[in-house]
Design a protein that fits this description.
- The protein is of the alpha+beta class.
- The chain has one domain.
- It is built from four helices and three strands, in the order H-H-E-E-H-E-H.
- It has a three-stranded mixed beta sheet with strand order 1-2-3, with no helix packed on it.
- A hairpin with a 2-residue loop joins strand 1 and strand 2.
- The two termini are 19 Å apart.
Length: 115
């Protein structure tokens, strides 16, 4: 799952991950009163971005999604199966401070890679 901003070559910009995911998470965990605080933790989860490069889509990622979602699932969700290459990008890494803030808000015991 990509929580970063997705920019398509056609000029369509999708909402950023926190705008999409935060309301769902706040309802799921019964933390609706903390919605704005949740939205601020934009680097809490593994994320990435998709860019079109000619006929191929480059999927930039922080290599911290392992065990959370399969590459094939990300490609399927964005309709780029067989038309993508995966590239590591430091900018897409999950940040420790944001991750720990969300783990505290939601009382999550599961951990995942971060820097």
């Amino acid at each position: 799952m990509s929580l970063g901003e997705i920019k398509w070559a056609r000029g369509i910009t999708r909402p950023s991950g926190p705008e999409i995911v935060a309301p769902h998470l706040s309802r799921l965990f019964g933390k609706e009163g903390l919605l704005e605080e949740i939205k601020e933790q934009i680097y809490a989860f593994p994320r990435g971005r998709l860019e079109k490069k000619g006929r191929i889509y480059a999927i930039y990622h922080g290599d911290d999604f392992q065990g959370m979602v399969a590459r094939q699932e990300v490609e399927r969700l964005f309709g780029v199966c067989g038309k993508s290459s995966w590239k590591w990008d430091e900018h897409e890494r999950c940040l420790y401070e944001d991750k720990e803030a969300l783990r505290e808000i939601f009382q999550i015991t599961q951990d995942w890679p971060s820097v």
